[in-house]
Amino acid sequence: MTEKSQSDSASVEANKFFEKVYDEFLQRHPIQQSVLGIRDRYSDWDDISDSADLAEIDIAEKNLSEFKEKIKFEELDTVTKVSYKLFVYEAEQKIAGRKFIIHNYPINQLFGWHSEIPSFLINIHTVKDKKDAEAYIERINKVPFLIDQVLKKIEARESKGIMLPKFAFAQVIDDCKGILKGQPFEFEKKYKSSSLLEDFNKKTEALKLPKEQEDSLNKKCHEALFINFGPAYRKLIAQLEISEKKATNEDGCWKFPDGEAFYKYALQSTTTTNLSPEEIFETGQSEVKRIQEEMKKIMVEVGFKGDLKSFFKYLQDDPKFYYPGDSLGKEAYMVEAKRVIKEMKGRLNELFITKPKADLIVKKVEPFREKSTAGAFYQEPAPDGSRPGIYYVNTFDMKTLPKYEIEALAYHEAIPGHHMQLAIAQEMKGLPRFRKYGFYTAYIEGWALYTELVPKEMGLYKDKYSDFGRLSMELLRAARLVVDVGIHSKKWTREEAIKYFTDNTPNSEYDCRKEIERYIVWPSQATAYKIGMLKILELREGAKKRLGEKFDIKEFHDVVLTNGAVPLNILEELVDEWVKSKL
Q1: Fewest CB atoms less than 10 Å from the CB: which of 177, 258, 448, 562?
Q2: Would you tell me how many other CB atoms lie within 10 Å of the CB of residue 356?
Q3: CB 272 within 8 Å of CB 569
Q4: C-alpha 364, offset from chain centre
């Protein structure tokens, strides 16, 4: 056998293994099936118990052992060698997390099963025919079992001292109650349909079924919500109200059993680096100082007299920087966000060789979760084209959406940020599925933050205040490095972290509070953005220096985007190989 045919044979074998493992994963995870547009277990939910999570780790150990025994790295082709490294890395990370299996909050004000269930049904569970509608109803009927699993997870954590901080309970309870607004939970005729009932009715109406079939389905959904869904949520609310009385104001994960070791693991998982908490803290302080110096220059250019903190206050208080909070103001924001995205779409050829086929829409966050969820976020499209990518804007409080940040936010969440990145990865030919749908936070968020800067280099952000908005969003990400480590390693209180934000960023006190509360319940996640961006910029500038006139920004972006999500060290290897090939 020639060296090439041996490489081909070994690579085919490895890719068959990857696909087998992914098929088995999908069989265990009907939620991910639905995300991918697969309707095999369309009426089921995942098993979300802690024992199921432990079983996943056992499976990862078994698969890794079998993989290493079967597949020899040196016999693989170039693409499959990258897949090999990623497969091993993912499995080893999962296995290393075994001892921290309960170090999390299954429900918090930012995300959790209480909001995931209705959001999933509305946004992911598409209805193409009567069978899909029946599966939707069946999923509603199975919600009590899912909520019981959530309650067991909460109980297991509370017994080990892992309890949501006191401030978060009121927000979560309020969200749960919001989901139960409207019919059939409030059944008098004066109430409108709840978000879920309205969604189901719209989906069945679009099917154009005979009237008696449509009415029958709608009646069954109404009954399922009333008989099963409502009582399950009321049971959850009752338990949360009991837990709230026992909760404390200790915010950092240092309070967890073996909290210091957990936080180091969390940082390593999130950043895909070996940076220590102190190194991340110092990087944050340094970046905050640098960005603030750039802001001062803009402050002078727009003719503002005073210090930077006064300028921040001016931006917070002057109504000209915000759309009104009424329906017209909210709609005006959405129109402008769509205009920014359309303009960038017209210039993608300047930056990219590969572009996504999937469509992108801009949508307001649904009422049932707008009070507590993030200001903006992205949801990837279905690979089969049945669902577009969605850039969600949370218009609940227009004071959190200043006009001067519209551009940077749209670039980050939509184009050329998450939509370019995640849709392209899904559409790549020749990559195993675990790479197409992989997720490394430092890579994902690092790219999105990097794409806030790239339009500046293209001559966009023509308005000085928009450029200031770009810097304010970058400053936010730099300050996150400081406060995340402050909260979870240095034992800062929530109020100390909020003060650091109000002293150092242009965000309103309300916005700063929401941000800090997010970092408290999601240790380490906030560090991904700046660490990832700094690495991508470092790799780009290093490639420019080595290649000189041979450097092509479009080719560089192709290397970054067409390999799927990867840890930062593997991204560095990919860029290095590209540079060597050009030389």
Answers
A1: 258
A2: 21
A3: yes
A4: 16
* Rounded Cα gap, residues 93 and 57, in angstroms: 10
Distance separating alpha carbons of residues 490 and 485, to the nearest angstrom:
6
> Which tokens hold the place of 474?
């970058």
Distance, CA of 571 to chain centre: 20
Q: Is the dihedral of CA 251, 256, 260, 265 positive or negative?
A: negative
Using CA atoms, how far apart are residues 501 and 508, in angstroms rounded to an integer? 9
Q: What is the pLDDT along the chain (583 residues), one digit of tens a residue?
A: 555 555 689 999 999 999 999 999 999 999 999 998 899 999 999 999 999 999 999 999 999 999 999 999 999 999 999 999 999 999 999 999 999 999 999 999 988 999 999 999 998 999 999 999 999 999 999 999 999 999 999 999 999 999 999 999 999 999 999 999 999 999 777 789 999 999 999 999 999 999 999 999 999 999 999 999 999 999 999 999 999 999 999 999 999 999 999 999 999 999 999 999 999 999 999 999 999 999 999 999 999 999 999 999 999 999 999 999 999 999 999 999 999 999 999 999 999 999 999 999 999 998 877 876 778 899 999 888 888 999 999 999 998 899 999 999 999 999 999 999 999 999 999 899 999 999 999 999 999 999 999 999 999 999 999 999 999 999 999 999 999 999 999 999 999 999 999 999 998 888 899 999 999 999 999 999 999 999 999 999 999 999 999 999 999 999 999 999 999 999 999 999 999 999 9
Interatomic CA distance for residues 256 and 246, integer angstroms: 16
Residues 6 or more apart whose Cβ sits within 8 Å of residue 33? 26, 39, 40, 41, 42
Evaluated on CA atoms 458, 459, 464, 466, the torsion sign reads: negative
Quote the tokens at residue 515: 């941000």
The answer to whether 456 and 474 have CB atoms below 8 angstroms apart is no
**Distance (Å, whole) CA 173 – CA 184:** 19
pTM: predicted TM-score of the whole model, two decimal places: 0.92
Helix (H) or strand (E) holding 468: helix 464-488
The string of DSSP codes covering 341-366 is: HHHHHTTGGGT-SS---S-EEEEEPP
- Residues 6 or more apart whose Cβ sits within 8 Å of residue 34: 42, 120, 124, 125
The H or E element spanning position 166 is helix 166-179
| Type of residue at 216 | S
Residues 555 and 351 sit within 8 Å (Cβ to Cβ): no
Structure tokens at 530: 């700046």
196, 120 in Cβ contact below 8 A? no
Distances (CA, A) of 319 to 57, 314, 324, 337, 468: 52, 10, 8, 19, 17
* Amino acid residing at 132: D
